[in-house]
Amino acid sequence: MTTAAPNHSLALIRLCVLLMMISRASTATTQSFKQAPKFYNSPKCASIDTDTCSEGAVNVAMTLDVTYLRGSMAAILSVLQHSSCPENVIFHFVTAASRSSSAQLLNTTLSNSFPYLKFQIYPFDDYAVSGLISTSIRSALDCPLNYARNYLANLLPSCVDKIVYLDSDLVLVDDIAKLAATPLGDNPDTVLAAPQYCNANFTAYFTPSFWSNPSLSLTFAARTPCYFNTGVMVIHLQRWRAGDYTTKIHEWMELQKRMRIYELGSLPPFLLVFAGNVGPVDHRWNQHGLGGDNFRGLCRDLHPGPVSLLHWSGKGKPWARLDANRPCPLDALWAPYDLLQTPFSLEA
């Protein structure tokens, strides 16, 4: 990992920090969140303590920042509300170390809204990774915290064997334990599982420079790669550590700094390392793209089939569209999980 970021990367960090400061000020002065109800285990649930290494725990990892805090709160509520064993869910939140002043706000907000939540917050050295980041098609994708999922195996306790990684712009409508129980098989090279979309144009995720280079275009020669969305993944952390997959992702990011081989932020390195060797997960667990494309964020419909998780990936976020009084039809499915306390809220 580089120790000093190039000038453009430092400028990127400063932009992200500025946006976070503006958002933090807005949150501190205009946003507060209601306390969520407490959810209890069903009788069949195993009893666990607060130890993250407890057998029977469902470990969930998310990034946490002020900008997407409203979405994160809704995602947490949805996980707990639909879990058969909500007291067995342990959250691992990764925050930017460069904004340590935000960590206390985030901790206090979580504790106030979810007083019984089992969680741990981990500071992530976003300055260190900034030197590896290249600009992408949308500036929001370039903030270093988007790359924190690359480092979960290093940040979380070594006893955590498997986690469910979730983005902050989604809600579950099914029991997360079902997703966490996804089998990854005996192949040590199968490090993660996610819904795959093999009808997508996989070549579009990389530049012509990538495909025209004989050595680079052979990257997928021994694999049958399919697109998968990195906002919902089941990750075997022990296998990740054993295979040193963080270094493998770094190598592709370093190459990207020398010659532009992709345009879409943190996703392509995952595709380069894992596509073609991803464990299967039913599409119901990531109805993604509800935020529209990365430029306009237009309304979209659900994919055909059942739904266990709705994901507003893309530019349009449901809370922003609701606040602007320009919601998409599916944003009404997110609204019941919104814990924002408004001046007009009435307590039952």
Short description:
The protein has 348 residues and is α/β, with parallel strands linked by helices.
Detailed description of the structure:
- Belongs to the glycosyltransferase 8 family.
- Helix 10 (245-258) packs across helix 11.
- Helix 2 links the parallel strand 2 and strand 3 (89-96).
- By secondary structure, this protein is α/β, with parallel strands linked by helices.
- It is 31% helix and 14% strand.
Strand order of the largest sheet: 4-3-2-5-10-7-11
Radius of gyration: 20 Å
Q: Segments where pLDDT lies below 50 for 5+ residues?
A: 1-6, 20-29
Secondary structure tally: strands: 13
Discrete helix count: 12
Computed structural class: alpha/beta
The proportion of residues in beta strands is: 5-15%
Mean pLDDT: 88
How much helicity do the residues have? 25-40%
N-end to C-end Cα span: 52 Å
Categorize the overall geometry. Answer: globular
User: Biggest β-sheet: count, sense, barrel?
Assistant: 7 strands, mixed
Q: What order do the helices and strands follow?
A: HEEHEHEHHEEHEEHHEEHHHEEHE
Keywords: Glycoprotein, Glycosyltransferase, Membrane, Signal, Signal-anchor, Transferase, Transmembrane, Transmembrane helix
Signal peptide: 1-27
Family: Belongs to the glycosyltransferase 8 family.
Subcellular location: Endomembrane system
